[in-house]
């Protein structure tokens, strides 16, 4: 049986690299993107590398698109072993809470928090039915409570809240062999991380891929960096 993984925000950056590494590990990959053309282009690149990949439109701010992708996965591929919630935005680098437009807060939470929840809600029924699932929430060290401080407040709050979601959901689904964990990729060279970052996307993707393939006795409800537990 070939395992199946779905990754959000996977047309570029860390999400694309997670697809590549999961594909290289033998998974059938569902590469999702909010832009259909960008998703299709990214899938063509993976197929040229010999990876079995499918492209689906999934805008995490549109729960219907997550449900449609879940319908495709259940109908065409029959199972979903791993869901990697990778898509995120960081639109507030120079903001401070005193003056930030509430719309910037809303848009950030809509993508980085509610988008993850919508995807979990769409794919959990299939995972519960098959009695197996791995959910990886790509968070950030900037959301760690122990490191909170000024700078990018909406992004930080969205990731802190995502960490809370991770712990609660992990406990809710623990009877179903579904392991939910969060991971920080470190500071990675992408459009979001900027080109001065020290890590490659390959390095940033590695721990998320490990969490997506955990054995049944693997950890749940934890936060990781480089396969080591990271403080919440
Ligand atoms: P990136 O290169 O900016 O890629 C972000 C991806 O998310 C893009 O594919 C983007 O699609 C997609 N996206 C944004 N909004 C979306 C939506 N509504 N629906 C679906 N997809 C959407 O960022 P990255 O650095 O690879 O980040 C990946 C993850 O790592 C994020 O969760 C980020 O918070 C986390 N992270 C990154 C770093 C870092 O240093 N890079 C550090 C810590 C955590 P478009 O191409 O259409 O915009």
List keywords for this structure.
232 residues, alpha/beta, eight-stranded mixed β-sheet, 6 helices
In short:
Helix content is 44%, strand content 16%.
Notes on the structure:
With 232 residues, the protein is α/β, with parallel strands linked by helices. It has a single domain, classed as Rossmann fold, CATH 3.40.50.720. Helices cover 44% and strands 16% of the residues. It has 6 helices and 8 strands. Strands 3-2-1-4-5-6-7-8 form an 8-stranded mixed sheet, with helices on both faces. Helix 4 (102-130) links the parallel strand 4 and strand 5 (133-138). The longest helix is centred in the middle third of the chain and has 29 residues, at 102-130. The radius of gyration is 16 Å and the shape is globular. The model has no long low-confidence stretch (mean pLDDT 98). The structure holds NADP nicotinamide-adenine-dinucleotide phosphate.
